Amino acid sequence: MFFAGGSRGYSAASRKLISKLLPTTSSNWSNKVQIIEYKEESDDWVSEHDDDEIIFGCFRAACGNKTLKISKVSVCRTPIEGLAKVMGAEAYHAIVLVECHSNSEKKWMTLEKNDCQIVIQVSRSLDDVLLRCGIMRLRYKYRPIRREHVPTKVVSDESEKTTDDLIRFFLKEGLNKEPYNLVAGNHCKKFAKIIFDYIAKTRKYDYELKENATILAKGGTVVSSAVIGSGAGPAGAVAGAVVGAAITAGAGVAVAEANMGPTTDSLAEK
User: Fold this and answer.
1) What is the pLDDT of residues 209-236, one digit of tens each?
2) CA distance 149 to 79
């Protein structure tokens, strides 16, 4: 997680709060990649490893041991609680959302960097990967971590890459071996930029812009709903029930509504 622009220009009280909520380095970094495949017909599958060969094999297994074609890639954002109140739209966590296909089968994937590790989630359901940010082990059980807010898109593009291209690039660049470090610039937004810029056909993700939503659509705005949540988890994640969300892009409007339940319809192509 990272906020653009650093703490310069903020009051002393704000800088103190920023440094308290978001340390510049993380002592929890493990070089591990958590790979999760959410399954409809059986228990979810999760692995956590730092060995390149095992990571490659687990990633392929999560993709059904197939080479999936990536048709679209996006960067999404969720506000960082506490910091967002001080810094507004600048304080957000970046997530890469990937849409994959194999014949008639569609899968969704998210990749993100938190202060402990890289998390890769794969599922046939968009809600599974977009409304969760990993799995936490509690005693002998694994429990999904729910996001507090429905992510909103920042930038999207088509792609000509495959999932095999993606994992080989990831391992070649050693992206799991760069510990989270705010000062050095190794944060969620830089990670998202590296992945997006590699996968995307023509566009780039510029996280230094204060309002990246303008990249998605000229004149577009993003409106996020209120969220009711409780139960803190890693990386600021909490369980939440979404009241509603809307994305307005230029002249077009996509609105998702839910009765006290999460939805991501506004982020999927219909």
Assistant:
1) 544 343 344 343 333 322 222 222 333 3
2) 7
Instruction: Give all strands (DSSP E) within 1-90, no chain letters.
Output: 2-3, 33-37, 45-49, 69-79
Q: Between the CA of residue 265 and those of 73, 123, 142, 198, what are the distances in Å?
A: 16, 15, 27, 26
> Could you give the angle at which helices 163-173 and 52-62 cross, rounded to 10 degrees?
160
What letter does residue 235 receive in the DSSP assignment?
G
Dihedral sign (CA 215, 219, 220, 224): positive
Give the closest residue to 79 by CA, choosing from 13, 140, 151, 174. 151
d(CA 114, CA 31): 11
Looking up tokens 């812009």 gives 209
Chain centroid offset of residue 129 CA: 9
pTM of the full structure = 0.70
Q: pLDDT band at residue 20, thresholds of 50, 70 and 90?
A: low
Token couple for 65: 């041991």
